[in-house]
Specification:
Elements (H helix, E strand, L loop, with lengths): L6 H33 L3 H13 L1 H7 L1 H17 L1 H36 L4 H13 L2 H17 L4 H5 L1 H15 L4 H35 L17 H28 L3 H36 L3 H28 L1 H9 L6 H15 L2 H16 L4 H24 L5 H26 L7 H25 L4 H5 L11 H25 L3 H4 L11
Length: about 525
Amino acid sequence: MTIQDTTHTIAAGAKRFFSGTMISRLTGLAREVAMAAAFGTVPVVAAFWMAFRFAHLLRRLFGEGSLHAAFVPHFESLRKQDPALGARFFYDLSMGISLLLLVITCLTEGILGGVLLFCHLSEGNQEVIRLTMLMLPALLFISLYALSTSLLNCEHSFFLPSVAPTALNLIWIFAIFFVWKRPIEQAIEYLAMIIVLAFAFQWLVTLPAILRYLSKELGEKWKANKFSGKEILRIVRPFMLGMIGVAATQINSALDAIFARAADPQGPAYLWYALRIQQLPLALFGIGLTGALLPPIARAIQNGETSRYLHFLNFAIKRSCLLMLPMMAALFVLGFSGINLVYGHGEFSQHATLYTTQCLWAYGGALLPMTLVLVLASAFYGHKNYKLPTFLSLLSVVLNLVLNALFVYVFHLGVISIAIATTLSACINSLFLAFFLRKTYDLDVSGIGIGVLKVLVASCVAMSTTLLVGYYFFQDNTLHCLAHQKLGVFPRELSMQLVSLGAQSFCFVLSFFLAAYLLRIREIFELFPRRAQPNF
């Protein structure tokens, strides 16, 4: 039975994505806590995170944004003609990507091995390359999982693909406890090898649903079908355009780690741990909303339903602002307590807590613009317009690199400036996307302003209230840091950390919803079941 696309189905899909992602992100958070407690932020751990970024650069190119953006519109147009055509396209694309990635992995391993043998590198750089080589085979499983996720989203399945990373996280956590008593260099290398297996299990979680889909659409003998690259060739151009934008962004991310290492040997670890916290609300709400939005937008555009497409897009923009503005405020005011609770154990020092929190503040400002980039780019992809988002992504990357070079090498602003550069670049990218979307496709956001302004006021009220409560009752260091005063001692006992974050979180939530009620922000309460909504 075909499900009619509405804002309700988009919201429901995003909620299912939220539920699965919440489980996987909580286990991911436990993974990060275990990593920080077991290994801290010593240089070899910073090398591990650098290698993780380099090894998964190809993951971003072949396995995520560019593939999703190219696959969904073409898949929807094919199955509009015949569902079997869409299924056949998915099968052929899976086979083609598998073969391509096996070749790329072998070539890359050979190149990196040659670099190790014939280039005179420092011990730290050799460690980065060795770890990259160990983790690189995971690329195949990551990409197949991402393609499966795109298909399942088109089939209105959001929970399963979003909860699948839980398998990865649990294996990773087990691996940490398995290796942490070994010498740290050996432990990190063993961990890198086990991670490949973990990514394979992440993909295998989605495989039964994919096999059922192929059997349903192609019949029980679908395995006997011969590979055909006919339809794959039609998405090469949009895929390559999307890949250019993603490549620029990911190369920029890898260079961020290099700039961070230049600013501080432990800098890449500070950025990584801060970014993991920042990406939690982005993954829960921003990526989930985008995943639920692109298939309905593509279907509406292909059916010539312009008003419906604009209605979906307007809904997504408004929902992004309503969710991300309070999230940005929460990241700022709860940053110290949150970082201290999550990472402030074992080898993770007070110094590391301070710098990781400051990086989190800087990254937090990018939450809304990053979400809007995802949403607005989806509208261009629905129109099969890949050139403009790619160009703007490249422009954003160049800006980020220039700012990084200025901040680190000219002004010597330290690691936090790298996160600030990322935020500024995301703001510029989102503004340009909104400008061109309004100019080219008649986007109208005139009805959004008042509601967003009210949410901004409520967020500021909650932030101010929580700052004062934290300062006077829980010795929170946020105001001390802003005033450049000497910081107090961070509590290391788990019970005190839980009390501090829990009480401040309760204060933030209570004051935000009280302000939202007084300001009559109806859209905030529409996120809850109808029986829990107040009567304005």
